[in-house]
Structures are given as structure tokens and as C-alpha cells.
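Issue 218. Parser rejects a valid record. Input:
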Amino acid sequence: MKTERVNLLDFDCAGLEAYFSEQGEKAFRAHQVLKWIYHSGVANFDAMTNLSKALRAKLAEKAEIALPQVVTDQLSEDGTRKWLLRLADGNCIETVFIPDGERGTLCVSSQVGCPLDCAFCVTAKQGFNRNLTSGEIVGQMWVANQLIGQTRGDGRWPGVNDTRVITNVVLMGMGEPLLNVDNVVRACRLMIDDLGFGLSKRRVTLSTAGIVPGLERLTDLVDVSLAVSLHAVNDELRNQLVPLNKKYPIRPLLEACRKFISGDSRRRITWEYIMLAGINDSLEDARQLVRLLRGIPSKVNLIPFNPYPGAPYQASTDAVLDAFREVLIKAGIMAITRKARGQDIDAACGQLAGEVINRRKPELRMAAGGVNA
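Output the parser choked on:
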């Protein structure tokens, strides 16, 4: 009976060292393999020339570097690029690259679909299937890096020894990252590890709708930046927009965020606030937001609503958005309006859909890593 091969993308540095130890190999061999995968973009063991032939043969027999397959590759008029990626089980996820001058941000998914059912997000309409593995999360970055290098024209892998193209990663794609804590943490460690993609920990941002136990776990597991999808200034409205709020209301969420940044004066919380006309965009809403965030080092991203077929909301006007932002700025809160990017290819915030098979909506079980897929 053929033994299923292990996907090496599922291991962070410590996990790969342990795997190599089990194979009777030294830790530095794991480091060599990590550099081949993440520094040089090599997914073929035969090409890892500083490994012995015997080790390469052993790895080819027992392990693999399994990557998602590219189904579609779309380029927006504004330079945004979106990939539909097929996983081994037939599910598809979406990944988006947003270039902006010298900054290149990759938006990656953490689940197939999403179980949270936020009212303004088309991803929730696709239903939910399962958590992504850590290999499927970092695999999105690996594939994007490879394709960007190919399009750049010289074919070189744009990794740590070259001019970076992907300078930032945001876990803001399909899914709720803190319902998949263990896999997300392993993926984040690979993103910031010098033997992995080598990004600064401040350039990897995890976005959550407010899974408080997951946030409390995250504090002790990995040091990355945090964005919180707030979208309302009171529980009554947030219960409608973000149903998760019924389980974890605003006040406990704010307290967990205070704890997350405590002890490090350089840290702050980024708050995501989608602007919905006549719903949450009044000047009084802005003033209440100022009061809510008092004492929390904060940055507020005001996000124009990106419509989708059948959407029950409309975007706030530019004048309303500017007035809302001005209230925050006058109160000393950094506030910016996020530019809508990739709308012509449905790559903007809240528009990612993918292809979810065997849809299911499990109860949200928060203990020990979130939803068990």
C-alpha cells in the first residue's frame, strides 16, 4: 500500500527540523530545504543540488511540495491581479495581488468559503467547506511569487536575495483566520522567518472579525500585525452586520485588542470599517467611534462598500466619507480611505468568491484551534 507523501509546505522551521530528525537527518538539512523552497522558488527535490542524492531520493519517496493549481489569472485595469486556485480536493480559493508603487500587497485566504455570514460580504454567500492547511496558505504566496517573477520578464524568483515584489501579506481573503489558528500561525511563521519568505513581522497582517479566544491565543503564538473588522459602533447594528458579534460583543473584543498590543508601544490595531450609506456613516457614528477607540493606539481604514449582485447596501458618497474621516483625524486618530482596487475583476474587499463544494455551516467551535474541518 502506497504511503501518502508529506507536504513540506505544511511545516514551519521547527516542524521541518523535527521531520528531518525523524528521518535521521541533521537540522541544517531542513534549513537547506527551506532556502530552496522559499528563497529560490524550487519545488523539485532533484534540483536541490547541495543535498545528497540519497536524501533527494528519500524526500521524493516520502515527501512533496504540493502547490495549488492556477485555474484563472485575471489582471485589472489598475494593475491588481487575481488568481483562482484549485486545491487537491477540488475546492477553489482566490488570492489577490495589489501593486502600489514600491509596495506590493498579497491578500491570501485562510478557509474555503467562510462560516461567519457577514451581511456585506459575498464570500459568505458561497458557504463554508473547511480550513486551509498551512501549506495551502503559504502555497498561495509561493505561486504568486512564481507567477509575478514570470510576468516580470526575467524569470527570476523575486525572493529575499532580489528586489521584493510582494512586500506585504494580509490574511484578508476568504475565511476567518482565527477559526483556523494553528494552520494560520504556522503559515505566518514561514512568512516572517529568515529561512522562509523573510518578511518583517509588521508587514504581515492578520484580519479578524473578532474571535476573542483565537485572538487571546494568537498573542502568545506569533508576532504579526492585527486588523479587526469592526464596521459598527454599537452591538445592535454590529449584530446585524457581523453576526459573530452576538457571541463576542464589542466590549470584550476591545479588551482583547488592548491586551494584544500591551507591552509594546510600537503596536497598534488597524480597524476595518466598511462605509454603508445611511447605515453606519453618520457624523454621530464617527464621534461614537472616537469614544470607543479612546486609549487604544489605532489606525482606521474606511472602506467604500464594493457592490455585488443583489447586495442590500449602497456605498457612502465621497462627501460623507470625507466628513466621517475628518472627525476621526481631528480627534487624533489616524484614518485613511482605502482605495477600491480590482473592482472590474471582482477582486476588491468583500468580493472574493472562489468555488466552494460540499457547502456546510458548522457551529462556531472556538476552542483549540477553531472549526474542525
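Fixed in the parser; the record now loads. The chain has two domains: 9-64, 69-345.
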